[in-house]
């Protein structure tokens, strides 16, 4: 029989903690060594949209979910300062346009995405007054499999060379940062407020720190698996992506939430961070500028 007094890492009445992480290369530095740091947990890898659905349905206790999904439930809480974000070109989130962005009438959205899907809709409406008809691009399919005016791709397949000549290719990280002057956070570790995770939040940050120490090995493996040059993968993991949720990233998140909420794509309840008192929130829509990145 399990003595619960002696198994402090067990939760849900003695069961193992279920952690869900993104299956793409972008998350490898966050989970390198995580299983060893959390022997009391089970780690599941999946696409971001599925992780969000599994956390919502209670099939996971904590998951690396699309940031827009963290705004969807006031009962959610960000539990770690580890995240997937960018301060410029992200390289793996691209909008492939067959026409000028202002002329897009049909938009195919990567089935694995929630955040970049919302960001694309926000940017097209805010910047061009465009509200395209939407369709889903199933996970296994390529841009060539659909005839939409624009196709959003995220993750590993978005890094591969495009198969046709497009009118315009947006790197969504680059577009956001040049538009707002703030970083963009794609994914964060989220759990329900009442879910006791024991040492998992601390271990998530520790795993990120350890992962970044092994970024050469991770890049070598990634380059072999995706058949991409090592230098490209190394640059992706060390320059394009940032893995720490700092004050500038939080400001970017708040602005994204305000914009997404104003387009009916997100809830407006301010995010909660585990272990922190809730702060009064200042609207950012009029204050975002490049100095916020400092
Ligand atoms: C940078 C990326 O961030 C991802 C984008 C997400 C989204 O669009 O919902 C969710 C999780 C992240 O893995 C990427 O997938 O390339």
UniProtKB/TrEMBL annotation:
<dbReference type="GO" id="GO:0016836">
    <property type="term" value="F:hydro-lyase activity"/>
</dbReference>
<protein>
    <recommendedName>
        <fullName>Chorismate dehydratase</fullName>
        <ecNumber>4.2.1.151</ecNumber>
    </recommendedName>
</protein>
<comment type="pathway">
    <text>Quinol/quinone metabolism; menaquinone biosynthesis.</text>
</comment>
<keyword id="KW-0474">Menaquinone biosynthesis</keyword>
<dbReference type="Pfam" id="PF02621">
    <property type="entry name" value="VitK2_biosynth"/>
</dbReference>
<keyword id="KW-0456">Lyase</keyword>
<dbReference type="GO" id="GO:0009234">
    <property type="term" value="P:menaquinone biosynthetic process"/>
</dbReference>
<comment type="function">
    <text>Catalyzes the dehydration of chorismate into 3-[(1-carboxyvinyl)oxy]benzoate, a step in the biosynthesis of menaquinone (MK, vitamin K2).</text>
</comment>
<comment type="similarity">
    <text>Belongs to the MqnA/MqnD family. MqnA subfamily.</text>
</comment>
<dbReference type="InterPro" id="IPR003773">
    <property type="entry name" value="Menaquinone_biosynth"/>
</dbReference>
<dbReference type="InterPro" id="IPR030868">
    <property type="entry name" value="MqnA"/>
</dbReference>
């Amino acid at each position: 029989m399990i003595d619960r007094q002696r198994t402090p890492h067990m939760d849900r009445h003695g069961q193992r903690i279920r952690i869900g992480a993104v299956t793409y290369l972008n998350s490898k530095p966050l989970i390198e060594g995580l299983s060893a740091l959390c022997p009391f947990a089970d780690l599941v890898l999946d696409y971001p949209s599925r992780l969000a659905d599994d956390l919502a349905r209670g099939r996971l206790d904590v998951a690396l979910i699309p940031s827009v999904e963290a705004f969807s439930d006031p009962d959610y809480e960000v539990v770690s300062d580890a995240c997937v974000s960018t301060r410029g070109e992200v390289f793996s989130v691209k909008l492939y346009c067959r026409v000028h962005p202002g002329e897009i009438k049909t938009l195919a959205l990567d089935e694995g995405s929630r955040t970049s899907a919302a960001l694309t809709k926000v940017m097209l409406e805010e910047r061009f007054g465009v509200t395209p008809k939407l369709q889903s691009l199933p996970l296994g399919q390529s841009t060539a499999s659909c005839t939409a005016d624009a196709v959003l791709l995220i993750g590993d397949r978005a890094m591969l060379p495009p198969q046709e000549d497009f009118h315009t290719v947006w790197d969504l990280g680059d577009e956001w940062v040049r538009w707002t002057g703030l970083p963009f956070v794609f994914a964060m570790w989220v759990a329900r407020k009442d879910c006791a995770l024991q040492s998992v939040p601390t271990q998530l940050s520790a795993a990120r720190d350890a992962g970044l120490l092994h970024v050469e090995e991770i890049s070598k493996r990634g380059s072999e698996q995706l058949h991409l040059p090592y230098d490209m993968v190394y640059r992706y993991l060390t320059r394009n992506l940032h893995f720490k949720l700092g004050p500038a990233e939080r400001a970017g998140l708040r602005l994204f939430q305000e914009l997404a909420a104003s387009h009916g794509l997100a809830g407006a309840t301010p995010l909660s961070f585990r272990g922190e008192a809730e702060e009064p929130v200042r609207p950012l829509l009029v204050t975002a500028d490049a100095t916020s990145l400092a």
